């Protein structure tokens, strides 16, 4: 009985063994056929391209090419014989020491990495070969999906089956990212050491070979200690692989290196600061990676007007003394769309890529006052509201504040709001600010898109808080368009390498300001160029008013370290900032006039062939002639009269009595809408505001 049971068990065991052998053979054959199929597929698909075939191209608003990506591999591709052998050896030693022996996958390394990960219970060691890394770099999508991993493996096979090891290592070194916008070893050698890849020393080569593992973490410019530590790891691997001896290794690690830290730009593109801003916008609004921006074959249609950009650059260059170290920035924007038509972030892009038009935060001084006076108009003030201009000490909280006017001049009498903005009276501004409540100006500034810290203090009315120039120009654009929200727009649309639109700009139509109050503010801002508003001092735009051939609204601003001029026509708003990077004071007389001179020159040149457009008053305002000295309705006997706009219902009702003989009746100059005949001088003024 026992023998029968034993035989039965033996037959069952043999049955399982035969089944296992059969299944094993089947799986082996299936695996062989599958592998054969994969290899056949890889061969049929043929060689993948070893470089991304297209650079990203940037177009101006007129359709002309203003630039293309210059840190891409197609631009800096160099053959292997023009790459330092030290760099080749260092890279292979640290990244894939069996590169010349495997067929794309290092199975010993994969097994070792798996064991290390299991022991650590975490992902601690990579096993990707140079071929695998290169295959990954040929993709623009780096999402961590199984589909991407499988496709990457197939690309690796295609690389190995169709290219030599020399071609693969050449492509890899011309493709990998070395940080700071440098793709490929030629760009990296240029950026870090100001030399060609073929001229890299052993120490320089081992330093650069360590960067691709973590371009930001191992950048010797940003993290030298990390970079030196990584360099030692590479040198030790080269000693282990018999590429260096111990003596050479010590010399390399101890050798001090000098880093260049910039690209040697030979052919500068149009509007380089603008293009930098465009790239930043692409990152923020689309999430597209730096690599795709550089080498994704994108077509980026921007808003810049190359002709207007050239005008802005030439005016700035011609007006500022070439011997001066002062810096400047310019933004020209369309007030209805927010499209940036020209942008200058500094005087020399090659020397400094810091974009002062967008990145810097400076005190705007009196150029901040239009936001205050808009708030005042919105809350019931009028251009005829009067306050006393005199030296004043204000009490607030537990402290005091004593603002002063330019050169210590005061009217020591009442002046109108129209005069206050034209003369830039600081005492009037602070009195207005405090009477409205300090939060009111903060709220208006936020509505206008002014970002940053705006403390509720008396000096906020005088522009003592730092702001970005791009915010200021955009806010003036909102005043110019009647209070509709806009944002600085740099890009109209983006197409991918297939010609598909992947981004299209959209316009906002939200009304963020009262239209009537915005127009009244705009009209008051024309006063800085109108000497009819002269009083205890002259209007702030008098030095450039004779250069202007049309009506502009604007405001200047000056602090000890900053000079601003921002102004607009109905079709264009331009802002200019001048100052020093290191907070040096503006001591020379010429330095204090640069901003206004540049602004006037740009606006006049940009609009010289354009028809004159008036600031068109909305239906909710009314224009009347007033005596600008007291804001009362003007009479025929007033020596100076000025057309002034008011929100309907807030216009003055009393007539100026200062110049009427007592025996005469009041002889008013009537509200504009009544259509009565005006004196010749008045008629000329009216013509400025008629389309």
TrEMBL record:
One of the record's GO cellular component terms: outer membrane-bounded periplasmic space
Alphabetic keyword roster: Carboxypeptidase, Cell membrane, Cell shape, Cell wall biogenesis/degradation, Glycosyltransferase, Hydrolase, Membrane, Multifunctional enzyme, Peptidoglycan synthesis, Protease, Transferase, Transmembrane, Transmembrane helix
Enzymatic reactions: [GlcNAc-(1->4)-Mur2Ac(oyl-L-Ala-gamma-D-Glu-L-Lys-D-Ala-D-Ala)](n)-di-trans,octa-cis-undecaprenyl diphosphate + beta-D-GlcNAc-(1->4)-Mur2Ac(oyl-L-Ala-gamma-D-Glu-L-Lys-D-Ala-D-Ala)-di-trans,octa-cis-undecaprenyl diphosphate = [GlcNAc-(1->4)-Mur2Ac(oyl-L-Ala-gamma-D-Glu-L-Lys-D-Ala-D-Ala)](n+1)-di-trans,octa-cis-undecaprenyl diphosphate + di-trans,octa-cis-undecaprenyl diphosphate + H(+); Preferential cleavage: (Ac)2-L-Lys-D-Ala-|-D-Ala. Also transpeptidation of peptidyl-alanyl moieties that are N-acyl substituents of D-alanine
Residue ranges of every copy of the Penicillin-binding protein transpeptidase domain listed in the record: 329-603
Residues annotated as transmembrane: 20-42
Lineage, broadest ranks: Bacteria, Bacillati, Bacillota, Bacilli, Bacillales
Record carries keyword Magnesium: no
Keyword Signal appears in the UniProt entry: no
Principal subcellular localization: membrane
One Pfam entry name: Transgly
Protein name: PBP1A family penicillin-binding protein
InterPro entries: Beta-lactam/transpept-like, Glyco_trans_51, Glycosyltr_51/Transpeptidase, Lysozyme-like_dom_sf, PBP_transglycosylase, PCN-bd_Tpept
GO biological process assignments: cell wall organization; peptidoglycan biosynthetic process; proteolysis; regulation of cell shape
């Amino acid at each position: 009985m026992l023998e029968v049971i034993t035989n039965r068990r033996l037959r069952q065991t043999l049955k399982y063994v035969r089944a296992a052998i059969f299944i094993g053979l089947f799986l082996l054959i299936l695996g062989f056929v599958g592998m054969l199929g994969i290899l056949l597929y890889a061969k049929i698909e043929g060689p993948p391209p070893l470089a991304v075939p297209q650079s990203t191209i940037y177009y101006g608003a007129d359709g002309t090419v203003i630039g293309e990506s210059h840190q891409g591999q197609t631009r800096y591709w160099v053959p292997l014989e023009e790459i330092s052998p030290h760099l080749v050896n260092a890279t292979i030693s640290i990244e894939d020491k069996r590169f010349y022996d495997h067929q794309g996958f290092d199975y010993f390394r994969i097994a070792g990495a798996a064991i290390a990960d299991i022991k650590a219970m975490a992902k601690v060691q990579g096993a990707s070969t140079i071929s695998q890394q290169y295959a990954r770099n040929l993709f623009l999508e780096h999402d961590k999906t199984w589909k991407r991993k499988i496709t990457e493996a197939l690309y690796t096979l295609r690389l190995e089956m169709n290219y030599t090891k020399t071609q693969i290592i050449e492509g890899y070194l011309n493709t990998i990212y070395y940080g700071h916008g440098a793709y490929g070893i030629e760009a990296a050698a240029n950026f870090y050491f100001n030399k060609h890849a073929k001229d890299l020393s052993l120490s320089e080569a081992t330093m650069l070979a360590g960067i691709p593992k973590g371009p930001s973490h191992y950048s010797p410019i940003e993290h030298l200690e990390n970079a030196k530590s990584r360099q030692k790891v590479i040198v030790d691997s080269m000693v282990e692989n018999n590429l260096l001896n111990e003596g050479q290794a010590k010399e390399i690690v101890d050798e001090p290196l000098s880093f260049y830290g910039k690209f040697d730009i030979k052919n500068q593109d149009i509007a380089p600061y603008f293009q930098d801003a465009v790239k930043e916008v692409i990152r923020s609004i689309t999430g597209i990676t730096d690599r795709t921006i550089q080498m994704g074959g994108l077509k980026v249609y921007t808003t810049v007007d190359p002709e207007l950009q050239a005008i802005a650059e030439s005016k700035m260059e011609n007006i500022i003394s070439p011997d001066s170290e002062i810096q400047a920035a310019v933004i020209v924007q369309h007030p209805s769309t927010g499209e940036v038509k020209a942008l200058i972030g500094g005087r020399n892009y090659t020397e400094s890529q810091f974009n002062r038009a967008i990145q810097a935060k400076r005190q705007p001084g009196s150029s901040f006052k239009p936001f205050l006076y808009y708030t005042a108009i919105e809350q019931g003030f009028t251009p005829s509201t009067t306050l006393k201009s005199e030296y004043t000490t204000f009490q607030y909280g537990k402290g005091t504040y004593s603002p002063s006017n330019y050169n210590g001049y005061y009217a020591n009498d009442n002046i109108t709001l129209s005069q206050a903005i034209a003369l830039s009276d600081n005492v009037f501004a602070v009195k207005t600010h405090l009477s409205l409540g300090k939060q009111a100006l903060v709220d208006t500034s936020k509505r206008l898109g002014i970002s940053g810290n705006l403390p509720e203090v008396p000096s906020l009315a005088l522009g003592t808080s730092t702001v970005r120039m791009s915010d200021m120009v955009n806010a003036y654009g909102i005043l110019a368009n009647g209070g509709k929200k806009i944002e600085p727009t740099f890009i109209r649309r983006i197409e991918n390498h297939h010609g598909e639109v992947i981004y299209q700009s959209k316009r906002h139509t939200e009304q963020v300001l009262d239209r009537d109050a915005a127009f009244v503010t705009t009209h008051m801002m024309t006063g800085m160029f109108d000497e009819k508003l002269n009083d205890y001092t002259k209007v702030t735009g008098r030095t450039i008013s004779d250069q202007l051939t049309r009506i502009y609204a604007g405001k200047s601003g000056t602090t000890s370290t900053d000079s601003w001029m921002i102004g607009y026509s109905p079709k264009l708003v331009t802002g200019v900032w001048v100052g020093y990077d290191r907070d040096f004071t503006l001591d020379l007389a010429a330095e204090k006039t640069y901003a206004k001179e540049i602004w006037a020159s740009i606006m006049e040149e940009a609009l010289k062939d354009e028809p004159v457009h008036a600031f068109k008053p909305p239906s909710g305002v009314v224009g009347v002639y007033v005596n600008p000295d007291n804001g009362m309705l003007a009479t025929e006997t007033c020596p100076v009269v000025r057309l002034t706009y008011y929100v309907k219902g807030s216009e003055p009702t009393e007539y100026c009595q200062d110049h009427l003989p007592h025996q005469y009746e009041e002889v008013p100059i009537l509200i504009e809408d009544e259509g009565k005949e005006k004196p010749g001088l008045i008629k000329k003024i009216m013509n400025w505001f008629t389309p």
